[in-house]
Predict the 3D structure of the following.
Amino acid sequence: LGRKLLRHAHGSQPPLAIPGDHGRRPREQIPEIVPELPLVALVDAAREAGLGITVHSGENTGPDWIRRTLELFRPQRIGHGIRAWGDHDLVALLCARDVLLEVCPTSNRLTRSVPSLEEHPLPFLLRAGVPVSLNSDDPHLMAIDRVHEYALSARLYGFGLEEFAAMNRAALAHSFLDPDAKRRAGARLAG
């Protein structure tokens, strides 16, 4: 599978996404579930072949798992990562390494990863300088989309054009688009 995946990487920068456990097992068992060593070699080979790396981590697992994800896989993006909030050293590490968190407030509430939408850490992560993008996660399964997430973020967190533009710039900067497509998208975003 790894060789097949890497054969298709030339000429573009597709992502290699590594899913997490989505809360199906107790948090303390998570480290034993993932066979990290074979995955680390695959991720390293994918990175060398030019693929972007996204790892699902920290939706329903704690800061130690996010830190482990950063050390083992060195992703450019983390799916969710909301459990970083409250660990100031980890927040600083995410900022220093410029790792984007793909944040999905409604999904996080529906999966019970946060007690309420009002208590979601998105505004705090954004204010702390962590690169974040606003996402909907599983739109068909959860019947939500990004328009919903934008409206929710405006209503609950007081986000306006400044915050949305910052998140969109971060999403573009951390996208796996080829440089020309990224430049064109950036021009549209600025215009």
